[in-house]
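#lab-general

N.A. 3:47 PM
ok so I finally got the sequence cleaned up, no stray characters, all 245 residues accounted for. can someone with queue access submit it? mine expired

B.Y. 3:52 PM
send it over

N.A. 3:53 PM
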Amino acid sequence: MLRVESVSKIFGRVAAVDRLSCEVRSGELVGIIGPNGSGKTTLVNLISGFIKPTSGRILYNGQDITHTAPHKIVGMGISRTFQMVRPFYQLPAYKNMIIPLYSPRVRELAGGRYGDRNAVALDLLEEVGFERDANVAYKPAGTLPQGYLKRLELAKAIALSPQLLILDELFSGMSLAEVASVVPVIEKLRMAGKTIIMIEHRLKELFRIADRIMVLNYGRKIADGAAAEVMESDEVKKAYLGSEE
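B.Y. 4:20 PM
back already:
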């Protein structure tokens, strides 16, 4: 489904991503991990079109999307969450869903007839953990704690009906209980046939649900495989724990 071919992104003299190649197959849940500054979010920004590579190319379903605009990439079936959530703080949470629900992709998939979008928004928010009986969805987004804002971010990405869903540190800022409640949502998306890329620092939860783990360090891929396998890699241990010298 997704192929990244020898992609580099250089900022000044720093290679944030360095000749990186990888592949994500349809239906997979692939975790991307690595120390801070290893290039994880830069890679996601490249895939989603927010920045352009210095060299290399990115293919999605066989089509070159290297220089495609972000909104067109969304229209092709890729959506994502962001580490830093920036909702419309003064609007109720459910009103933050209106932009994705009125996107050209959703209108096309629904044949222009998506029914009551407010109802759809409330249903999506309930799916990701907004308690309907507590009226949380009606509260201004700016009054919600971080865990709910992350759920709102997830709901907005799901609303775009993606084939490939990219989750950039979704669990960051969530309590253990909140993470435990969101994991089944992700597993349900997998069962529905979604392909998922997850960048995460919460390794325990990620390793439990991921099919495969890719490890980055200094912009390069240093391991790719099952969770237990990659964590036994000497290079991965060195990246996380440092050299013994």
